Amino acid sequence: LKLPQPNTSIRPVQREDTAALSALWPHRTELDVLWLIKRAQQQATQGRGLGIVVTDERSDEAIAYGQITLWHRAAEIADLAVLDCHRCRGLGTVLVQHLVKAANQMHAKRIEIGVAISNPRALALYHRLGFLEHRTVLIDLGHGGEPVVYLNIDLQ
Questions:
Q1: What is d(CA 51, CA 49) in angstroms, rounded to the nearest whole number?
Q2: What are the angstrom distances between the C-alpha of 4 and each of 8, 43, 58?
Q3: Which of 29, 37, 54, 86 is deepest in the core (most CB within 10 A)?
């Protein structure tokens, strides 16, 4: 994995990020986003996870989010999102790389990430970063059943 660009600012998610992060998920209420943040903060306190944001270098406002949760058999990367106007700048790569490093520091042996088949760019990103397809599951993502591919990467 490559190191993030030096001008990329990454920090743990904060309650104050709720409004900015709500723009990432228009289908979620602000209360849902606040719950997501609180859960990520609780997991970080327990050493079982981490929620991070990439911030705009000019405004320090959150423009991307990702989290990792440490389970018994694997760490799970979830809720990756980048604001539309900031896509195609490598921020998804930066998020995944940072979360993989965090999982390694938490002594995870394996990382799992899921992606809808309808999101080929994310699937290609995960393949580029070394994740291998493990299984496909049909999941209702809000508009009926959709195939979701789960990919894994083993850590040394």
A1: 7
A2: 7, 24, 18
A3: 54
